[in-house]
Amino acid sequence: MCVTFGPLATYKLHVRAYGGREDEEMNKKTKNVEGGKSKQKFINLLETFFADFMGRGHIATMDSAYMGELAAQVGREVWKLNMIGTSQVNRTSAGKEVKAQRTKMKVGTYECCFFQHKTKPLLVALWADNNIVTTLSNYHSPVICTEGSGLLRRRKVGKKREREKTEVQCPMQNRDYSETFHWIDKGNGKEAKYDLKGSSKLHNWSPKLVFRLMNMHDCNAYTLYKRLHELHTPERRLLDMSEAMSELTHALCQQGEPMRKQKAEHPPHFTNVHAGIFTTDLGRKVKCTTHGYIPAQPTKVATLGTDSAELNNIKKKYPWRQHQSVAHGKHGKCSWEGCPNLTLGKGKRKRAYDTNMRCEECSIAKGINGFYCNDVKGYVEGKSGEKKTCTCHLAYHMKYHRNDGRTSK
User: Fold this and answer.
1) Of 14, 166, 219, 284, which is most buried with the most CB atoms under 10 A?
2) What pTM did the predictor assign?
3) What's the pLDDT at 225?
4) CA-wise closest residue to 123 among 187, 192, 42, 177
């Protein structure tokens, strides 16, 4: 149930999900106009909806799933409500006549046909729009309107709608129905944008229902926000719906109890700085809203070969980590002047091999990536042309970084 007039149009007033066979409220009996009792579930569901609106002169516009001759009678005589809605042919006592007339009418001619009940104020109207539309009302008369429809007619060629609206004849109850029910369609359209990203059909009934109710709540909040902005802060920028949803999501995520149930532990102590930790399997992330604990500095995974102080800390723990050949995300030319690809025969282009292996320590010292081959390469040596291991990294460091006194830089 939603508001269909005024600045709060599309605001959902009441939602009631049918609980299936075990829904006890839907199994109660309701008095109908003849004084008997009915156990039809859609009558009981409507009575739950209209509990606070009976006898106050309201007009209820409904979908064909609930609108029928019985609902219209109970609405007028018991609930004191004016009711109108699309209806299925088998929901009226004139079902055979209505069905026969529908087959005679042609779509797109905007022909109108009425069926008036003999003793009760019930009126069935047929209208040949883009489809044969059947509506049922308990307070209308068989009146045809020539203004107020404002439809986008379909072209006979191509079946596309025209750009300009055209006034056509239609039953008055169809016009009144369209003026209100299109707000319900707009509200459903707004909610569908945030309905599990369009994947709600992949889930069961419970998550569908939870997210649908949540979407209704969010759209209601945005409707109120727009009205309050118009009344109190018109000078400020109005957030569109996607921005408002982001703000609302952030605000809701900050509420409630913290999710963490145990303290954040980091070896050797959770308050230590972990700038030197370079493995991803150590430590536990700290939730910033955890109460009773001092949030540690964010655990940083060291990027090898980017910081000399960081590398020195690593070498204190692992002395062997000197001039290591480490794979890098980028490729570069080999920096060794003796790279085999530079010693090719006459007529060959002299260009060092491309490699992604670099020396992390030399790269830090020089401030640029120092790439040296340290993998299998396919270069021509003599006439064999075999693939051999290319160890430019080892050759370069044997010449420039030996510690036996025979090398120089």
Assistant:
1) 219
2) 0.53
3) 93
4) 177
The C-alpha atoms of residue 295 and residue 284 are separated, in whole angstroms, by 11
**Residue 85, number of CB atoms within 10 A of its CB:** 24
Long-range contact list for 381-389, CB < 8 A, 24+ apart? 381/340
* Cis peptide upstream of residue 268 (ω within 30 degrees of 0): yes
Query: CA separation (Å) from 34 to 37, 46, 77, 92?
Result: 8, 18, 10, 17
**Contact in structure between 374 and 394 (CB atoms under 8 Å):** yes
The 3-state secondary structure of the chain reads CECCCCCCCCCECCCCCCCHHHCHHHHCCEECCCCCEECCHHHHHHHHHCCCCCCCCCEEEECCCCCCHHHHHHHHHCCCCEEEEECCHHHCCCHHHHHHHHHHCCCCCCCEEEEECCCCCCEEEEEECCCEEEEEECCCCCCEECCCCCECCECCCCCCECCCCECCCEEHHHHHHHHHHHHHHHHHHHHHCCCHHHCHHHCCHHHHHHHHHHHHHHHHHHHHHHHHHHHHCCCCCCCCHHHHHHHHHHHHHCCCCCCCCCCCCCCCCCCCCCCCCCCCCCCCCCCCCCCCCCCCCCCCCCCCCCCHHHHHHHHHHCCCCCCCEEEEEEEEECCCCCCHHHCCCCCCCCCCCEEEEEEHHHHHHHCCCCECCEEEECCCCCCCCCCEEEEHHHHHHHHHCCCCCCCCC
Q: 252-270 burial by CB neighbour count: b if 16+ within 10 A, else e?
A: eeeeeeeeeeeebebeeeb
Asked if residues 129 and 97 have their Cβ atoms less than 8 Å apart, the reply is no
Looking at per-residue pLDDT, the higher value among 129 and 115 belongs to: 115
Greatest CA separation found in the chain? 119
Report the b/e string of 165-189 with b at 16+ CB within 10 A: eeebebbbbbbbbbebbebbeebbe
* pLDDT tens-place string over residues 168-198: 888 999 888 988 888 888 888 888 776 655 5
User: Considering the chain, what is the average pLDDT of its residues?
Assistant: 77
User: Across the strands, what pairs with 151?
Assistant: 166
Give the separation between CA 400 and CA 409, rounded to whole angstroms. Answer: 5
- Model confidence pLDDT, tens digit, residues 197-206: 556 566 677 7
